[in-house]
Write a structure and sequence with these properties.
Keywords: Membrane, Transmembrane, Transmembrane helix. The protein has two domains: 317 residues, no CATH class; 251 residues, no CATH class. A seven-stranded antiparallel sheet has the order 1-2-4-3-6-7-5. Helix 1 runs antiparallel to helix 4, helix 4 runs antiparallel to helix 5 and helix 5 packs across helix 7. The longest helix has 38 residues. With 584 residues, the protein is of the alpha+beta class. The chain is built from 20 helices and seven strands.
């Protein structure tokens, strides 16, 4: 009987650890996905861009709309955040229920069995109640008004509270047992430890580990109590960070509560009668121990330290460096060369993706499977790939989809990069799936006359490949056509491209997207995401259209004719007709 009991408890401990770990992953990933949401990005970068346009680059504005609670993070059933939590936490809660019941399986009278059953089921029950009551989409429009602190009729308030009350009950059932049940149980276990049965041994190392884990089962609930007041904080030194501070307080409480479950499960592996341990036993248990301590240190204790030092942290810098800025080798070097933070621009060498880019860190798939990371689609060619960063319309496909303020902020950083790369020769603006290689974001490429020298200053290995061309492509000099287009800034008539771009000329970037379709387009109207062409700006100012032979050319008869405007498909630095400048 004793052997079967310890076996059931061990299997239950594995289930509890696995389910808790899955829940941890889901809740942590949900907030990352919330930040990734185009809807949310558009909302918080709108405020940021508006302030930046007035000269106030306050990165903490992106925290102004941060969820106030973890439940709010995944509280909208129509979002990816909710689907992540729904698809993982609900089945994990079921596994947690089964595991908890098995882990607390002990002999005894009816009342003791009742206590064991309650101890095993109350936390999973509360977790399922929380997931089943989405705080944003649940309850209809009146609930949304309540969350925005808007006036709500008394009857509506009473009606919605019938549902909201269940969410609070679920939260209490999920968090409460760690304080009201597990803490007293850990104290009793510590002063009344299990004793080996006849014929059993309890070696010294497992005994020490059991006492350590039991002590941590006492410490973590106390830390939960210490972190709990942050859930109700009403002020922060930077008001933009108040909602995030409350969210982080709940997150900290949840991490310590999860740690109680981890250590409760792990302590089962060191009970009398568990040994002797095989090599595989030691490897598995050791990995679980290390992972549990890692989560306690780098999530629980770290978040408590952050809360304690909240008002002393320079959130403007932290938001800029951790949330919105990439830190790849090219960006680090360009920030040094330009002496600017380059908040609105992200650059890589073609084919060399930036591992710190949000598109890479947030992707559930390896980078080599998809070409969404900046630069991957272009291959290892002798170019830089540059895209706007921190713009309002995160659904933008091309530069013409960006707002004027976003184009101006991007242009300022782009001009700084061009100045820092003195041999910059050509800018490439691709449109359509063929030239963008199915990348669905605005970006451009940049080539240099002395690419090796520029890369050497940046400190990375230079690419050697040249871009390839198709047999069915043509290129035309359309400088006069571009300068004559309606909406072309007047500065381009008398100045070079970079000078004119610096003088409120950013709208020319959007104008390139209207070259073959002046009326604009909607994505639903072009399933192949055409027309397909590339505008090359060969500095100081020469505009080249590169496209397919069957592609419809810009409206209006050119003067002279199209054949007289033929140009090379690639600029001289990429034509491959001579050796690189460094070799020469």
């Amino acid at each position: 009987m004793q052997y079967r009991e310890i076996t059931a408890q061990t299997v239950g401990a594995f289930l509890v650890f696995f389910a808790t770990r899955i829940c941890h992953w889901a809740f942590v990933n949900a907030i990352h996905t919330w930040w990734l949401s185009p809807k949310n990005r558009s909302m918080y970068f709108k405020d940021f861009a508006a302030a930046a346009a007035k000269g106030n680059v306050d990165m903490t504005l992106i925290m102004k709309h941060h969820p106030e609670t973890i439940s709010e993070t995944f509280g909208d059933e129509s979002t990816s955040e909710f689907q992540i939590v729904e698809a993982t936490v609900r089945p994990a809660a079921t596994v947690l229920l089964v595991g908890n019941m098995m882990m607390h399986l002990k002999g005894g009278g009816v009342f003791q069995c009742l206590l064991s059953a309650l101890r095993g089921c109350i936390a999973p029950f509360g977790l399922m109640m929380v997931v089943s009551t989405p705080v944003i989409s649940g309850g209809g429009g009146c609930n949304a008004r309540m969350r925005l602190s808007l006036p709500t009729a008394d009857l509506n308030l009473l009606y919605i509270f019938q549902w909201v009350f269940l969410h609070f009950v679920g939260f209490a059932c999920f968090v409460g047992p760690s304080l009201l049940w597990e803490l007293p149980a850990a104290v009793l276990d510590l002063f009344n430890p299990p004793q080996p049965e006849a014929g059993q041994t309890w070696p010294q190392i497992p005994r020490i580990l059991w006492y350590c884990l039991t002590s941590l089962r006492m410490v973590c609930p106390i830390l939960m109590l210490r972190a709990a007041p942050y859930l109700f904080t009403e002020e922060a030194k930077n008001p933009n960070t108040l909602r995030a501070k409350k969210w982080y307080g709940e997150y900290c409480v949840g991490e310590f509560g999860a740690a109680v479950m981890y250590f409760n499960a792990l302590s089962v592996f060191f009970l009398p009668g568990q040994g002797p341990y095989s090599i595989m036993d030691k490897v598995v248990i050791g990995a679980m121990l290390l992972d549990s301590f890692r989560i306690l240190l780098f999530y629980g204790l770290w978040s408590m330290w952050v809360l304690h030092a909240w008002d002393e942290i320079d959130w403007k810098y932290e938001c800029m460096s951790r949330t919105t800025m990439s830190h790849g080798p090219v960006m680090k070097a360009l920030r040094t060369l330009t002496d600017r933070q380059l908040v609105f621009l992200h650059a890589v060498q073609a084919g060399q993706f930036d591992p710190t880019e949000w598109h890479v860190t947030s992707s559930p798939l390896p980078t080599w499977i998809i070409n969404g990371a900046l630069g991957v689609a272009q291959g290892h060619v002798r170019q830089f790939v540059i895209r706007p960063e921190n713009y309002t319309n995160f659904l933008a496909y091309d530069f013409m989809d960006l707002q004027k303020d976003d184009l101006e902020l991007f242009s300022e950083d782009l001009l700084a990069v061009i100045s820092a790369l003195p041999s910059t020769a050509t800018l490439f603006f691709p449109f359509g799936d063929i030239y963008k290689k199915t990348v669905r974001r605005p970006f451009l490429c940049l080539s240099c006359e002395d690419f090796e020298a520029e890369i050497e200053r940046i400190g990375v290995k230079a690419n050697t490949d040249l871009p390839s061309c198709r047999d069915d492509e043509v290129a035309f000099d359309i400088t006069d056509k571009v300068l004559g287009m309606e909406g072309c800034p007047a500065a381009f008539q008398t100045r070079g491209f970079c000078e004119a771009l610096a003088e409120d000329g950013s709208m020319i970037l959007a104008l390139f997207g209207q070259l073959l379709n002046p009326q604009g387009y909607k994505e639903v109207e072009r399933p192949d995401l055409g027309p397909h062409y590339e505008v090359q700006v060969r500095l100081p100012q020469r505009f080249i259209l590169r496209t397919l032979k069957e592609q419809k050319l810009p409206e209006g008869p050119p003067c002279p004719g199209w054949e007289e405007l033929r140009a090379s498909l690639l600029p001289p630095e990429l034509a491959g007709g001579s050796e690189p400048k460094k070799a020469r």
